[in-house]
Amino acid sequence: MDDTIVAISTALGKGAISIIRLSGKDSIKIVNSVFNGVDLNKVDSHTINYGFIIDGNKKVDEVLVSVMKAPRTYTTEDVVEINSHGGIIATNKILKLMLKKGARMAEAGEFTKRAFLNGRIDLTAAESVMDIIESKSNEAMDLAMKGLSGSTRKLIEEFRENLIKILANIEVNIDYPEYEDIEEMTIKDIEKEIKTMKNKLSKILESSKNTRFIKDGINTVIVGRPNAGKSSILNKLLEEDKAIVTDIEGTTRDIVEGSIYLDGILLNIIDTAGIRETDETIEKIGVEKSLSLIEEADLIIVVLDGNKKLNKEDKEILERTKNKTRVVVVNKDDLKQNVDPNELPKEAITINTFDNSIDKLKDKIRNLFELEKINTKEATYFSNTRQIDLVEKSLDKLEIIKKRLKEKTPIDLIELDLKEVFDTLGEIIGVTYDEEIIDHLFENFCVGK
Predict the structure, then answer these.
(1) pLDDT score of 353
(2) Domain boundary residue among 373, 397, 413?
(3) Within 176-254, where are the H helices?
(4) What are phi and psi of 306, to 5 degrees?
(5) Rounded distance, CA 236 to CA 63, Å?
């Protein structure tokens, strides 16, 4: 990390401004060599300086240059940000000029990676930076900000500090084996701490199941036979005419998508082609796609036509979705009901799309996912699969330690197990890490971040 990196940090296109960011020991020197204004080497840190970027005798753009000197910067290195007029041509000209003068094009996420490697932020905070960028709701933003503010790091550090105390006691026990009461006290302390840690981690892990829903939403698929009213339900949920509705069976040939917020959680809703046997090529493809989406969905809304008796397709859909998270909706309850109640699951609800009974469907979804219990402001969550996998690994090891204590395994072997938990928890915040994993993590960032 001895070189200086550069990247465009704003979306490339028309806009009021563009920002070209540099980080590294030569940042100020490089920009100063093409800046027509004050001497940037002599300005105070965290100042904005007016002037022009020049290429030889030619002015490239009128700019404001922010100079931020190490270590009080995002990366802890010297950072310079050139605020130019928004636009592709001017922005790219300045970028090329920075490269020509000795900067290197930054890799994806390299600014944040440097912030992590230089010790300014931990790995959970680095991941939260990306979560902030990708936030789709206020709740997702709140969750990301908790990670950025260090709540996850503090939690993990607390666990690791407790483990250090236990490991220190074990060392005393090993150094003074003649004192049996020390060993007995040590084992009791370990058992107590393992129980507390397991309970606390398990509780947070359970809450973290909601993390993906908070960040990405609930992937919801509406399925049913043709003309059961799937598209009408989609339109009613979205409060707009997104899908075409007719009395002709098979109108929906391909998926129709839309999104709504329910108690701050995004529902990504897909209306699928009606499921039935067909020889019509295009409709057949749509039916196959509908069936595949059932396997991928977080929530399935099964729509039945209450005005008709259940047919073979209805029963196959009910059977296929019985072990999935689903809401069974008997639609058209404003018409004569010909569905046999004995053929319906107990949790089925009846609605129509002409009054406010669609609220029954929303309430059912709220109850299924316990949306009212999701509180990002109060709860602590592990925010992604990487963190959750490491917590699960730690919990598995803690359970092994618990069993070995009961089996009176030698204390020095227990010490090795505890050190493994200590290191695994360290991976969550990046105290210990695999370089390949770190590289892969930052690949998902945008280049200018």
Answers:
(1) 86
(2) 373
(3) 180-207, 211-216, 230-238
(4) -65, -20
(5) 50
Q: Are residues 289 and 321 in the same domain?
A: yes
CA distance 357 to 307: 17
Are residues 166 and 224 both part of a single domain? no
Can you give the CATH number for the domain in which 161 is found?
1.20.120.430
* Digit-coded pLDDT (tens) for 176-215: 555 555 566 678 888 888 899 999 999 888 878 777 788 8
Q: Which two tokens stand for residue 95?
A: 């970028």
In whole numbers, what is the pLDDT of the chain averaged over residues? Answer: 85
Q: Is residue 288 part of a domain?
A: yes
Q: Judge if 105 and 153 occupy the same domain.
A: no
Residues 225 and 355 in one domain: yes
Structure letter (DSSP) for residue 228: S
Question: Within a 10 A sphere around the Cβ of 449, how many other Cβ atoms?
Answer: 22
Q: How many domains does the chain have?
A: 3
Q: Are 303 and 224 in contact (CB under 8 A)?
A: yes
> Does residue 283 fall inside a structural domain?
yes
Q: What is the pLDDT of residues 219-277, one digit of tens each?
A: 999 988 888 888 888 888 888 765 444 444 444 444 678 888 888 888 998 887 655 45
293 membership: H or E segment, kind and range: helix 281-296
The two three-digit tokens of residue 293, written as one number: 């989406």
Q: Can you give the pTM of this predicted structure? A: 0.69
Spatial CA neighbour of 7 closest among 107, 77, 141, 101: 107
Residues 224 and 367 in one domain: yes
Task: Give the number of residues written for the chain.
Answer: 449
The residue with tokens 């390949």 is 436
